[in-house]
Amino acid sequence: MKFLVHTYGCQMNVRDSEAVEALMLAAGYEKAADESEVDIVIVNSCTVRDMAERKAVGKCGNLIAAKEGRGKTVAPHVKVVGLMGCAVKRMGADVFKSLPKLDFAVGPRRFGVIPRLVERCLAGETRILELPDDNEVPTGMDAHVGGTSFQSYVTVLLGCDNRCSYCIVPDVRGHEYSRPAREVVAEVRALAARGVKEVCLLGQSVLRYGVRNAAWGPDDPPSPGGYTEAFPRLLEALNAIDGLARIRFTSAHPKGCTDELVCAYADFPKVCRHLHLPVQSGSDRVLKEMGRHYTRAEYLAAVAKLRAFDPEFAVTTDVIVGYPGETEGDFEATRSLMEEAGFDNAFVFKYSPRPGTRSAALPDDVPTEEKERRDQVLLADQQVRGQARNDRLVGTVREVLVEGPSLRNAARWSGRDSGNRIVVFEPSRPVRIGDLVQVRIREAHPQILIGELA
Asked: Other CB atoms closer than 10 Å to residue 228's CB: what's the count?
């Protein structure tokens, strides 16, 4: 029987979906090419924003309609429709009020049971609900789909204990759990042996790795470089793996930008010089309301620390506009912080309340039109800033991991440098996906660099 997994949301959902695919393949199922031949469809949901949740639930509704021989979705053979992920944990049993004919629903940290649930549904059961507790350790986390991929996600930290006022993630993904370091190292070593060149370590607040529970045990070898913090020590161990070329990680919190982390960037050449460091606001008042636990000055100090040893170090961020009570002065404080930090790229989100969060009890008092205006102002600022940052790289030679032909021009190839910048180049000699090549930059744009093989 053939299956498909549809994914909505963040990189952690992408990784969870890949693990589910691997588990389904190991259970004897076959991946379908498209919905026209699929028997089993699993939708991995996001609930961080209302629109993402509605899309996932709507997709399930369309598939259920197709299963019953109605609707517009072309899936004539579908027999089982399941929903997994964060929306299931948020809705609980109410998921069956929205989707009365859903076959199964599985919350985060429980995806390892999906092959067994599919068997039960094929045997005639329906409306099966599996919800994890907040401290559950999932099975199947190290399952990867085989093949020739040169990049892979590896989850190292589950859950989140930060409790930001606007964020529902701690409620749906549970408490923090750091996977044992030896387990992560073994997984990455196996991926490198299979030809993976780049891994991206995932965690909701990845620099808190090893904070809630010990990631390194007393029987683990000591750090050769004398590192004492769990995450830099993990980077040191992964940097020593033969065949692995690059290590990335996301997402970070300014409190984790310690001296040891900066030393790890400097000491370990495989660790890419890029950090996604969400700021959310440049106003100390709003940051306090959000429960971010740092000030504007502390955030800027973290950025300065990263750039002190490498002025080209790439820092990207997330920003929320229109948080309840955000004044024009608060917004201008965000605008000025972004200029002072000199972000290489920024992702701007218009605030929307999520049920159950602290901020949901506050009046959503910034008009939609004003949220849109502030969004556009910050994006326009970032275009100028991104252009200026990239202009400085013209004439330099960047090491680029080749990802494939450019999406906009098939005659060119595309990849990313250590700073996660997109680099497009003319393939003047044969190159392959997964190659590391040297590219001399001759042209810069706000979010892309153009060059030629050096």
From this structure: 10
Domain boundary among 256, 272, 288: 272
User: For residue 451, what are the β-bridge partners?
Assistant: 425, 441
Which among 175, 170, 115, 113 is positioned nearest to 139, based on CA atoms? 113
User: For residue 446, what is the domain's CATH number?
Assistant: 2.40.50.140
Q: Can you give the three-state secondary structure of 11-43, one letter per residue? A: HHHHHHHHHHHHHHHHCCCEECCCHHHCCEEEE
Classify residue 279 by its DSSP letter. Answer: -
pLDDT value of residue 48 = 93
- In angstroms, the CA 12 to CA 158 distance is 9
Q: Which residues of the chain have pLDDT under 70?
A: 72
Residue 322: C-alpha distances to residues 142, 349, 354 (Å) = 39, 9, 14
- Whether residue 166 contacts residue 213, with contact meaning beta carbons closer than 8 Å, is answered with no
For the chain, the maximum distance between any two Cα atoms, rounded to a whole number of angstroms, is 64
pLDDT at 70: 81
Q: For position 204, what pLDDT does the model report? A: 95
Residue 10 and residue 120 in one domain? yes
Whether 99 and 166 share a structural domain: no
pTM, entire model:
0.96
pLDDT at 410: 87
Q: How far apart are CA 235 and CA 156, in angstroms?
A: 12
Question: Which residue, among 111, 64, 66, has the nearest Cα to 86 in the 3D structure?
Answer: 111
Strand pairing partners for 397?
A: 440
Cα–Cα distance, 237 to 342 (Å, whole number): 31
pLDDT at 75: 86
